[in-house]
């Protein structure tokens, strides 16, 4: 059966550490190979720049213009997506990704949760809302390559298992 690229993916991930940034690079390479994907969007690839901000990379409070534009751009891309893929760092929980997952599920769109940990020997725990919000779970430490062949046109359910739900 020929696969037709119709899926539009919103790729969500924290982007603060070197490990998180490297995961995004790997995921984007794999998603680009997937025959069911028409396009994918990663918010940091099209970041809004407020020309009136001085030294935003230094940290501190971002301008209201930047915050409103960034928030609206991300929500628009979530609305336009047919599925979300979230590279979720189980060691450094990211509120932004959690919000995006909830928003996507409120729109009745599937979420593929790709989990990562630097401590695979620890007991695995996941918040109930995150566990129930995920349509499919993929272990990013061991199964990241699945992103290249996953059927994003159908998004088969693979509920969260093996986690203590808290």
TrEMBL record:
InterPro entries: Nucleoside_deoxyribTrfase (IPR007710). One of its GO terms (molecular function) is nucleoside deoxyribosyltransferase activity. Keywords: Glycosyltransferase, Transferase. Transmembrane segments: none annotated. Its EC number is 2.4.2.6. The keyword Transferase applies. This is Nucleoside deoxyribosyltransferase. It comes from Lactobacillus gigeriorum DSM 23908 = CRBIP 24.85.
